[in-house]
Amino acid sequence: xxxxxxxxxCFWGVEADFQxxxxxxxxxxxxxxxxxxxxxxxxxxxxxxxHAEVVRLEFDPAIVSFEALLQxxxxxxxxxxxxxxxxxxxxxxxxxxxxHDEAQRQAAEASKAALDASGRFSDPAVTAxxxxxxxYAAEDYHQKYFEKQGIAACPV
Length: 156
Hints:
By secondary structure, the protein is of the alpha+beta class. It contains five helices and eight strands, in the order βαβαβαβββαββα. It is 30% helix and 26% strand.
């Protein structure tokens, strides 16, 4: 198994998108990329901790490649908007790929460049590509939130 960590706005919808992907064996939402240890949801909502809302995936690379997961990421949000998705605004909603090894970093950079070259968006992607240094699981009530609420997809 391998691990991938992505931020693309509110983690509830991002998690729901990745749960549908064959080869993704587990998902967990949490906080990454900040400077505060073990932050709470209330902490990260201040925008002062530096964390992004993320989904951490466990996946089987024999079934789904990291590159295919990047395509799911690009399709799950607008990577050209800085620190916002829909009505959600703040650094905690930023678009970010946290890479776990050099191969993921290279794949993320190549995929982002290909997205920009494709002309799909009129503006370039602002998605950050950063090392996966720290990660903290979100509170239990955030885990599988849409599933618990009987919601199939993000309404935004």
